[in-house]
Design goal:
The chain is an alpha+beta fold. The protein has 2 domains: 42 residues; 187 residues, no CATH class. It is built from 4 helices and 14 strands. Strands 3, 4, 7, 8, 9, 10, 11 and 14 form an 8-stranded mixed sheet that branches. Strands 1-2 form a two-stranded antiparallel sheet. Strand 1 and strand 2 form a beta hairpin.
Length: 243
């Protein structure tokens, strides 16, 4: 007996399968473009340009990132203590679990006060510490600061930390690579002063002084191509021990 050929899918049933196949190809193309091709091209472009000034962090692919605008003097323990007293949470490292957590927070409004922050590089190293202060219930908007230890503590001197304080205002796509990221508010001086004010309110911050930073910028751009403006100064203060 001859076998009957397998039944063929009707045109109506083939349409959803074709749509899913196209969506799969589009998703793969987006990932390849945003997370591989464009970052490589921007990295190559940045290697051919003059390097940015010293007091500025870089993205992992070498794009000029956020200017350094704060400096703190104190041990790791004193730093963690004063930030906690000021109502700032230590950000968790980027892992699959924390990435899913911040995605749930943004999509469904779940609180995530320790959501991870993206990596920036200063003097060839990622940030040593990152802290944040929620603005809304979810992780869509938040104050945050990344800190690098630029001078280790010695027998008679505490550690020196340089930081970049900015405010996240929304989640969106990086204007240069298309990757998902936070966008910042343009007035980074306001964030710098808010952080130092929060720390001073604890009673455990010493006198705040100003020092030259990146320099004035009216139309600056960071690694996401977000605009910012600044007077270009760093605010530096010691943390009183035992706070």
């Amino acid at each position: 007996m001859s076998q009957r050929p397998p039944p063929r899918l009707s045109a109506a049933r083939r349409r959803p399968l074709r749509a899913l196949a196209w969506l799969g190809w589009l998703a793969a193309a987006y990932v390849a473009l945003a997370y591989a091709a464009l970052p490589r091209l921007w990295h190559l472009y940045e290697t051919l340009r003059p390097q940015p000034p010293e007091l500025r962090a870089l993205t992992p692919i070498g794009l000029p990132g956020d200017p350094l605008n704060v400096g703190l003097i104190g041990s790791e323990a004193d730093l963690d203590r004063i930030m906690a007293l000021a109502g700032w949470f230590r950000a968790e490292p980027i892992t699959l679990a924390t990435s899913l957590g911040i995605a749930r927070s943004v999509l469904f409004g779940n609180p995530d006060p320790r959501a991870p922050v993206s990596t920036l590089i200063y003097r060839g190293r990622p940030q040593d510490r990152a802290y944040e202060k929620p603005i809304t219930r979810d992780a869509d908007q938040r104050h945050h600061v990344r800190l690098w230890r630029v001078a280790p503590s010695g027998p008679s001197l505490p550690a020196l930390w340089y930081g970049a304080a900015t405010r996240d205002v929304a989640v969106g796509l990086n204007h240069l690579t298309g990757q998902f990221t936070h966008h910042i508010a343009p007035d980074i001086d306001l964030e710098r002063d808010l952080l130092m004010g929060d720390l001073a309110a604890t009673g455990w911050l010493g006198p705040v002084s100003s020092a030259p930073g990146l320099g004035p910028a009216r139309r600056g751009r960071n690694g996401e191509d977000d605009p910012y403006f600044t007077d270009g100064l760093m605010k530096i203060a010691p943390i009183l021990p035992g706070g």
